[in-house]
DNA sequence: GATCTCCGCTAAATCGGATTAGCAAGTGCC
DNA sequence: GGCACTTGCTAATCCGATTTAGCGGAGATC
């Protein structure tokens, strides 16, 4: 890309010192004695010439590139992506690192190729991310490397994980309902796990359900039922419609995602039921639509931004990485879809 | 990041040749004579050792890093982002390039810092992207560099632009309505330009309106009115509600974005009007919700993926870049929100 | 037989920094 | 004055490739 950059040799020449001296002066290292006079001459020369070190040359020597690799299966798709990357980008910038973003599409061969590409370019560390919270096994190229798992767990792989605290999220949803007095007529839509559409080992659903049921049990309440459903609007609509058609009259719905909630809203509206007067709805994710719905949806937010931020901060921290699991809290976004419970008729 | 890599010197030693010979054999260059015997010895040694060239060292010498920089103001936010990046990633991978993704947040100082960071790392080219189609002025660091403008135009800046063909999109929306027989009672919501919330110089709205009006005029039809509205669900709801409250009875709505359409749906439902029986709706963007709405929304799609792909392909093509504007077609996604026109009552 | 030309390959320089080894001048101490 | 030490700086290497310059030997030419 064009341009004859100013090199350190240019700076040294202008300052009338050796490249060695220029190097030490510019890096600010104190273990080599440089007089104040020489240092300021070098700094002045560098400033006048608009000198910027060549990161490539530096990397070659130091084996560090001030660069991170972000490897994920799919970067767009639903809840994830954008905000995670933003969080990561922000944290990386704060430490003067740049991010290589890659996408494997779930293909192992592609994955290997990309990881090798990152390693060839001397990335300092790799964030291995999944768009659905599930179990993974990172490629062999990554073994022994500085790696952090984002939104996934890899048993037996020696690396820390950062995942959303889904269990606590389930509890949060349960408590939100209990706080409004709901103890009966509670149904979970899209319950234990995401079915065909999502990859194996997805555990977000399971954990949410576990937390939810735990908190209800402690309060002496329980779920009237769990309706399995894929995690999208279409299926949410279909399953809730079916539930209503079967004659059930839920008082509260715990939907596995905002998309399912969206479908649920449509089904309830069609049945002439209003939210939250007739049915309260609490959900998970906090996608954009949560705020657009009428009434706005109360939902437990996936901490996208925070996940990305934390991943980078951990991996850029110094010292060795311990293989622990960091659970990031999922905050409740209280909006208008939970109403007070009415005495059951 | 740990690991003692195999170097070319290792390969040469094992093959019993000089590093020079190894280099030529591996790069497959033919302008230097290497016997078939030597070449295969080197290739075999490289394979046995699992040799991978150090991209950093290579970049230092060749000034090219097989790397691109992607600079954008905001990477998340609404329509854009995810798919654009995916498109870019795919095209980059096809040419063995990796992508640095950065986000400036619209801050010039941050922007300069990031661009310099990219340049320091020897990126081969930079894609300067905006999330809203508007006019920009790239930072001075980018002048004279290999740059491509994505989703924006920069008058006076010598670089090609890739933008969605908004004018044609407006025509497409108009034709979709005309095809269903609509020639009267057509209103545009969120018309000429995005007001306060979006940055200056956004021209997507203007161009869409121009194309729309042109096509209506040619067919002897015209807009009953243009309602200005911010490009979000909340404002779409408010403006359409107001329109209806003022006694207007539109037969078709052209909404500036799917979010506005979403709000329009809510307002229409509240007024007891059904889509598309009472009111047809055509929109722009093709966000996820377009497919979730009932009835599903007919909308002119922003070609995100294609924009990203094309940007990378152009910038990775060889030869100098010409400062022309490439307009990417916006395809119509026909769904269920346009119904046949009824005779006006 | 001497000179030329190819061939096939290697030595050495280069890219732009970081780092190690070491040198000359100045200071302190006895 | 002599020796040890410190100070401040520089020469030389190294990182791992790419690339230029050039060297012996074989065959061709006259």
Explain how this protein is built:
The structure is a homodimer of 345-residue chains. Helices cover 40% and strands 18% of the residues of chain A. In chain A, α5 links the parallel β1 and β2. The longest helix of chain A has 15 residues. About 2% of the residues of chain A have low confidence. Chains A and B meet through α4, α5, β2, α6 and α9 of A and α4, α5, β2, α6 and α9 of B. β2 of chain A pairs antiparallel with β2 of chain B, so a sheet runs across the interface. The structure holds a DNA duplex (30 and 30 nucleotides).
Present the secondary structure layout.
Two copies of one chain form a homodimer.
Chain A: H1 8-15, H2 19-27, H3 36-49, H4 55-62, E1 67-72, H5 82-94, E2 98-103, H6 108-120, E3 125-135, E4 147-153, E5 161-164, H7 166-179, E6 186-189, H8 204-218, E7 223-227, H9 233-245, E8 252-255, H10 258-270, E9 280-285, H11 288-292, E10 298-301, H12 304-316, E11 325-328, E12 332-333
Chain A binds a DNA duplex (30 and 30 nucleotides) through residues 5, 7-9, 17-21, 23-24, 27, 32-35, 38, 53-63.
């Amino acid at each position: 890309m064009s341009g004859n950059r100013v090199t350190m040799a240019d700076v040294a020449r202008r300052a009338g010192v050796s490249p060695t001296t220029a190097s030490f002066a510019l890096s600010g290292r104190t273990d080599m004695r440089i007089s104040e006079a020489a240092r300021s001459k070098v700094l002045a020369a560098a400033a006048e010439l608009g000198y910027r070190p060549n990161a490539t040359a530096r990397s070659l020597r130091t084996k560090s590139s001030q660069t991170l690799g972000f490897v994920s299966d799919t970067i767009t798709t639903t809840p994830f992506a954008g905000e995670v990357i933003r969080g990561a980008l922000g944290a990386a910038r704060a430490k003067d690192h740049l991010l290589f973003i890659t996408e494997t599409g779930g293909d192992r061969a592609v994955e290997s190729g990309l990881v090798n590409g990152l390693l060839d370019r001397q990335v300092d560390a790799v964030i291995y991310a999944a768009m659905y919270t599930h179990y993974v096994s990172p490629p062999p190229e990554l073994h022994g490397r500085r790696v952090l798992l984002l939104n996934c767990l890899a048993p037996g792989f020696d690396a820390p994980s950062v995942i959303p605290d889904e269990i606590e999220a389930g509890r949060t949803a349960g408590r939100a309902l209990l706080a409004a007095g709901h103890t009966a007529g509670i149904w979970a839509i899209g319950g234990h796990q995401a079915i065909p559409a999502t990859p194996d080992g997805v555990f977000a659903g399971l954990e949410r359900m576990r937390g939810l049921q735990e908190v209800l049990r402690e309060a002496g309440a329980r779920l009237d039922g769990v309706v399995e459903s894929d995690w999208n609007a279409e299926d949410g609509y279909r399953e809730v419609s079916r539930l209503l058609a079967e004659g059930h009259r839920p008082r509260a719905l715990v939907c596995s995602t905002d998309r399912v909630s969206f479908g649920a809203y449509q089904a309830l509206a069609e049945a002439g039921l209003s939210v939250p007067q007739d049915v309260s709805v609490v959900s998970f994710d906090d996608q954009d639509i949560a705020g657009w719905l009428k009434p706005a949806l109360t939902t437990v937010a996936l901490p996208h931004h925070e996940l990305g931020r934390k991943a980078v901060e951990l991996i850029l921290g110094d010292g060795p990485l311990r293989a622990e699991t960091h659970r990031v809290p999922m905050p409740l976004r209280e909006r208008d879809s939970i109403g007070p419970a009415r005495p059951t008729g």
